[in-house]
């Protein structure tokens, strides 16, 4: 069966429309990724700074508790150290590093990744209702 000139023109118009739609979709996805990256980078720095303050408060509390018992003080120091480590990580790294680390974590610890995703979903849903 031969394709007539009209059918060829129609096919060419459809292909052109699909190509234009593909380009617009790719531009939109690129723009969304850029905005997401900027948002995550900005929030990570804020969270890192907040964790630094939490770490300082934990250290102060552990020093107070240390007077009550060395065992509790050591646990407070350990907790403050972990919070400070998380603070440094968030202040130092960018979106790509977060994405890579989260992917690696999810591969190694599928169960924890599911639990963390569920918890994050609950937090987002709660914040969305407010």
Can you tell me about this structure?
The protein has 130 residues and is mainly alpha-helical. The chain is built from four helices and no strands. It has helices at residues 5-66, 70-92, 95-108, 110-129. It has two domains: 7-93; 94-130. Helix content is 92%, strand content 0%.
Outline the fold blueprint.
Blueprint: H1 5-66, H2 70-92, H3 95-108, H4 110-129
Largest sheet: none
Q: Distance between termini? A: 63 Å
According to DSSP, the number of beta strands is 0
Mean pLDDT: 79
Q: Report helical residue fraction.
A: over 70%
Task: Name the beta content range.
Answer: under 5%
Low-confidence stretches: none
Estimate the global geometry from the Cα principal axes. Answer: elongated
């Amino acid at each position: 069966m031969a394709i007539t000139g009209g059918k060829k023109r129609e096919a060419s118009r459809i292909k052109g429309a699909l190509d234009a739609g593909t380009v617009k979709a790719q531009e939109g996805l690129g723009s969304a990724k850029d905005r997401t990256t900027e948002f995550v980078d900005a929030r990570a720095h804020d969270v890192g700074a907040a964790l630094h303050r939490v770490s300082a408060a934990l250290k102060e509390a552990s020093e107070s508790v240390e007077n009550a018992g060395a065992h509790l003080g050591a646990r407070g120091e350990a907790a403050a150290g972990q919070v400070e480590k998380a603070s440094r990580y968030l202040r130092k790294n960018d979106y790509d590093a977060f994405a890579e680390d989260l992917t690696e974590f999810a591969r190694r610890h599928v169960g924890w990744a599911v639990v963390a995703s569920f918890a994050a979903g609950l937090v987002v849903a709660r914040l969305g209702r407010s």
